[in-house]
DNA sequence: CCCATTGCCGAAACCGGTTTCGGAACAAAT
DNA sequence: ATTTGTTCCGAAACCGGTTTCGGCAATGGG
């Protein structure tokens, strides 16, 4: 009983003339022979401090290596100079090869502003709610980066209700700008990539092109599918509902959906995938049927996962600059917290085509392909 | 003037609007009709508060949803209840598939203690120094997790000099416990895995076993190599310096080192790799020579990267539970910061063998293998 | 019954910053 | 010479907690 309680000890001689050796604003003030309020206002650019003293304070602060403690400032200002990123961990594919680069971008951008990044993880939507609430209540961050936005995103609702700044990596509402009319976001235009993929395949001679989409829960899935159909439209190809598959979130599901497409009476000679993972899964389905990727069936992916350059044949894909995404998101979020209007903090960038060996002119027509599959 | 003088309003009872809606310790104190010092000490388990009032305070705190601001506490205690993780970003292979799980483990453990995780990245050893110094000076964290320890680690020197708590993921000094005699660490025993790999291969019938090590800058490289040679010793195989290669940090370097081994007059019929990435690189070298992985040449990796289960033949490897590593590291670090002696906060766990198809009985003897390679 | 402990709590100082308010010094206007 | 502004800075309150210190009441010992 009472084992872990703190016992008061008398005569605890503090051997600390200046524990930690930190330079505080008081040290700085007494060194300069002025009040700490003047020092504070000088460093924070108040207009009622003369230019000369401001310079003097700044030089001395520099010389003594003074750094205000953000948490000491926060107690009055309410700002901790930190942004938070909460990763959701219940996704089918937990291995995110881009995370390190994304973090590097975000941390570097934050650091440039003198801010830091706190990170947390959530196991489910509900846990996400708990985690966000806790971070907000304890004021661990002044704003949030929301990766992988969903069509209707519960995180957005929560943060919006609590009035906490956030920026989305991705759009919501299929990009219809209803919910997000006063929200900031950064995104890569997957729809443009999908459209370009179709155009590319058509110009290679393909007439029947399949599509394997991703988890419809995420907003990007819808945008990419729309991009694909716009590609069909732009190339005057007839859309065929049979050629549109959805919901391939993993490599294995990519295999499954590809099988379905290739078993059609009129199979596609080329397939566009919303994600590289699904496209990598396609290799298995294609080779299982005795077909060759890039000749019998052309494959184009999206994301630029590292493995795409190591599979044989190497995967043609649209590469996303994840590091830059992190950098832009952090930067835009900090600016938003500092007061810039959110609806002016939006950026849409393009993915970069990486031409490799998984696509090319069709070796067979769709009919011939069907026969070859049949015989197998 | 006097505009800021708030005039007292009669009906202003306890349920005041309270900008921001947060419950502060003052609210709690006035709600309980006791001083805030009593509340504070009650919540912090001081022995001079009676059990009954302590319970009462805790219940009320719970009911009102009171959460102390860690940065408000920090101003007096010097503790922000956060641990930091600084990732180094200049490594050859920037794609770390384990990062998300590692973070999940660390965040969850920290969260269980009511702590948080702040993250940052460094581009070089020098940048690492800068980043750490900044985080320390601004007291953004109370301690650090140091991933991927080097043989002599500059981070350790810095933190040791500044007296900042840290825990290493990995050991230093080849595990000789010189520098680390009063440091805490968590590690996976790669040396045991390497030793077991040799034993396994010998029992499969292999007589000449090669080894491809990793970057000697990192401590684990030495431990794993020593584990390998201990495996040779345990199986009474004669060590051959020609069969020991070092420094394969990437897939491509794995390919290169494998080529060297297979071009020997007496090539190995099995090769153990310190990392999966190098082992995956081996596939290219082996198939290029017209050989079959798992029959002509057995391959065993270490790490358990996701790709290992997708390559053909699937890679036999020692799987590391990265999520648990993050969890243990965070947990041990928090306990250390809370006062437990560092030299009692050490854990060594084992990697888990995953038997797949990249190893098996040797199809040929070393001499026969050499001839087959020659003919190619 | 008195005195010394002990248990328990409140008042106030404190942590390192920010922000408000008032006033001194000086210049310009009347 | 007085009034009116400006410019610039110091004193003090404040933020939300923690910790020190002292004191009151109850208890126990002689």
From TrEMBL, chains A, B:
Matching Pfam families: LacI, Peripla_BP_3
Alphabetic keyword roster: DNA-binding, Transcription, Transcription regulation
Gene Ontology terms, MF aspect: DNA-binding transcription factor activity; transcription cis-regulatory region binding
Domain HTH lacI-type, residue spans: 23-77
InterPro entries, per the entry: HTH_LacI, LacI/GalR-like_sensor, Lambda_DNA-bd_dom_sf, Peripla_BP_I
UniProt KW Transferase keyword: no
Organism domain of life: Bacteria
Region (Disordered): 351-376
SMART domains for the chain: HTH_LACI
Protein name per the record: Substrate-binding domain-containing protein
Organism of provenance: Parasedimentitalea maritima
């Amino acid at each position: 009983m009472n084992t872990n309680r703190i016992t008061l000890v008398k005569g605890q001689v503090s051997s600390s003339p200046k524990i930690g050796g930190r330079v505080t604003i008081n040290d700085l003030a007494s060194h300069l022979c002025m009040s700490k309020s003047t020092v504070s206002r000088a460093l924070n650019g108040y207009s009622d401090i003369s230019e000369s003293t401001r310079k003097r304070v700044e030089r001395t602060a520099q010389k003594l290596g003074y750094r205000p403690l953000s948490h000491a400032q926060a107690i009055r200002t309410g700002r901790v100079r930190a942004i938070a990123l909460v990763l959701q961990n219940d996704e089918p594919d937990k291995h995110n090869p881009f995370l390190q680069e994304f973090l590097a971008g975000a941390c570097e951008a934050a650091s440039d502003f003198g801010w830091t990044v706190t990170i947390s993880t959530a196991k489910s939507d509900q846990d996400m709610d708990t985690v966000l609430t806790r971070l907000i209540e304890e004021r661990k961050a002044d704003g949030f980066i929301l990766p992988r936005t969903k069509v209707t995103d519960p995180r957005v609702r929560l943060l919006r209700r609590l009035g906490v700044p956030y920026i989305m990596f991705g759009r919501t509402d299929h990009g219809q700008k209803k919910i997000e009319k006063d929200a900031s976001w950064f995104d890569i235009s997957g729809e443009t990539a999908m459209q370009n993929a179709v155009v590319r395949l058509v110009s290679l001679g393909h007439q029947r092109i399949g599509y394997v989409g991703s988890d419809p829960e995420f907003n990007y899935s819808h945008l990419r599918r729309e991009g694909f159909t716009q590609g069909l439209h732009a190339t005057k190809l007839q859309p065929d509902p049979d050629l549109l598959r959805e919901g391939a979130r993993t490599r294995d599901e990519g295999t499954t959906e590809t099988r379905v497409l290739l078993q059609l009476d009129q199979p596609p000679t080329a397939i566009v995938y919303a994600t590289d993972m699904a496209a990598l899964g396609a290799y298995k389905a294609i080779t299982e049927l005795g077909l060759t990727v890039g000749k019998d069936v052309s494959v184009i992916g999206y994301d630029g996962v590292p493995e795409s350059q190591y599979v044989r044949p190497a995967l043609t894909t649209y590469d996303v600059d994840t590091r830059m995404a992190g950098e832009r998101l952090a930067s835009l979020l900090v600016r938003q917290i500092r007061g810039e209007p959110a609806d002016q903090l939006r950026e849409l960038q393009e993915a970069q085509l990486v031409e490799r060996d998984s696509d090319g002119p069709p070796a067979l027509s769709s009919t011939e392909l069907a026969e070859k599959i049949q015989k197998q």
